[in-house]
Amino acid sequence: MFIIKRSLVVSLGILLIIAIMMNGCSNNRLAAEGDTVLVHYTGTLEDGTEFDSSRDREPLEFTLGAGQVITGFENAVYGMKEGQTKTVTIPEEEAYGPYRDDLLIEVDHEDLPEEVIPEVGTIITISYSNGMSLNVPIVEVTETTVILDTNPPLAGKDLTFEITLVDIS
To answer: Tens digit of pLDDT for each residue in 54-73?
Structure first.
């Protein structure tokens, strides 16, 4: 009877040690608020066009809850485990927002820098008083004015991302 109990205790002890070792060898922690994460991603549009990917460069690093990436992307990473890959479609409201006509700016030709040729597709850099700048395209040209589009390039679009969580710290 003593031998049976002893071998049962030894077997249970071995199982416990194996379980502890397996949990220690892989990080089963879920990504949560305040964690700094590294992710690889590929972003595509509805028609399958790839607009960005980190696969050929370093993973993207950001802190969950710090507002460093678009809301839908950040929300997709919450609850992921290291090594996990998932694909999510982020509606425009959780990405770059809807396309807004009020972000089209009409500028007289005479107010353009001398070196700018007013043609559709020409990119102009707008500098703000706070030191920030924004590259915007000319989207329309008339005899006396140009229309600049200050919307984010992906505004008004649902975005699909394949996200792989590389590391949680």
So the answer is: 999 999 999 999 999 999 99
Correct CATH for 30-100+151-169 of 3.10.50.40, 3.40.50.2000, 3.90.1150.10, 3.10.20.90: 3.10.50.40
- In the block, which residue shows the tokens 């992906």? 154
Which ranges constitute the DSSP H helices of the chain? 2-25, 71-77
* DSSP three-state, residue 53: strand
CATH annotation of 101-149: 2.40.10.330
pLDDT digits (tens, 9 = 90+) for 76-122: 999 999 999 999 999 999 999 999 999 999 999 999 999 999 999 99
- pTM value? 0.78
128-142: pLDDT as tens digits: 899 999 999 999 999
> Which secondary-structure segment (H or E) carries 108?
strand 104-108
Angle at 68 between CA 62 and CA 55, to 5 degrees: 50
Q: In sequence order, which residues have a C-beta less than 8 Å from that of residue 105 and are 6 or more positions away? A: 136, 147, 148, 150
